[in-house]
Write a structure and sequence with these properties.
CATH class of the largest domain: Mainly Alpha
Helix content: 55-70%
CATH superfamily of the largest domain: Homeodomain-like
Distance between the termini: 22 Å
Largest sheet: none
Structural class: mainly alpha
CATH topology of the largest domain: Arc Repressor Mutant, subunit A
Order of helices and strands: HHHHHHHHHHHH
Number of helices: 12
Number of domains: 2
Shape: globular
CATH architecture of the largest domain: Orthogonal Bundle
Number of strands: 0
Length: about 230
């Protein structure tokens, strides 16, 4: 795994063993997994689940700073491990996310789930509130109330977050010599570039151009390796 950070970047890295995650997920689902768990990346810290995750990990880091021996107790360590694992599984989208939430929240309205799945699959397409209302089969008022209750946000704010994640995916892999931030932003229906940059920085802690520029060294190194073969 390669990670690139600016010199003044504050870093908090939380590492999970995949076996631990899958064992925890199996307990929730009540059956063995058919396929390995695969998370959607990146994990937006601007989403409701992302904000919860950030708050939890930051508080834990502060607790450890104040008392480095806090995790010496197996009971305390197990508690924090299970808490972090549970929040991650319920907050970050993965290939068992829908089944997990159906198991955990049987009362979640079908129309909210239907709208969520549609936006995750079609975030790069033109979607309006009317689109979601027609798809869900309920009124705009009911859909709005359902999202507020079960997702902690509005339908269009949820869509914006999905599009920000899609834009970041593209920026993380694009060649800066051939692609611009504007091209990627407009692909994901962000036409006010200043607002896009502000929302992006709030969600991911850096500007879109900074994300794109990080690829210069990686693409150059990849090109050199190819030329030497």
């Amino acid at each position: 795994m390669d990670m690139n950070f600016a010199p003044d970047t504050n870093r908090l890295v939380v590492r999970f063993e995949i076996e631990c995650l899958e064992r925890h997920l199996t307990t929730y689902l009540g059956h063995e997994l058919d396929d390995p768990i695969v998370f959607k990346v990146p994990f937006s810290l601007g989403s409701p689940g992302g904000r919860t995750w950030q708050s939890l990990t930051s508080n834990l880091a502060q607790t450890i700073d104040q008392d480095v021996n806090i995790l010496q107790s197996p009971l305390v360590a197990t508690h924090y491990e299970q808490l972090l694992t549970s929040v991650l599984l319920h907050s970050q989208f993965h290939n068992y996310w829908e089944e997990l939430h159906e198991t955990a929240s049987p009362a979640a309205p079908y129309y909210v789930k239907r709208a969520v799945c549609f936006m995750r699959e079609h975030a790069d397409e033109a979607i309006t509130m009317n689109t979601l209302v027609e798809l869900s089969g309920v009124s705009a008022r009911s859909l709005y109330a359902g999202f507020q209750q079960f997702e902690g946000t509005t339908p269009m704010a949820y869509l914006k977050n999905e599009r920000l994640c899609g834009a970041r995916d593209n920026l993380l892999t694009a060649d800066p010599a051939q692609t611009t931030v504007t091209e990627i932003a407009t692909k994901w229906h962000f036409y006010h570039l200043g607002r896009f940059a502000g929302d992006y920085r709030k969600a991911f802690g850096e500007s879109p151009s900074a994300t794109l520029k990080r690829n210069i060294g990686k693409i150059y190194a990849s090109s050199r390796r190819s030329n030497h073969r």
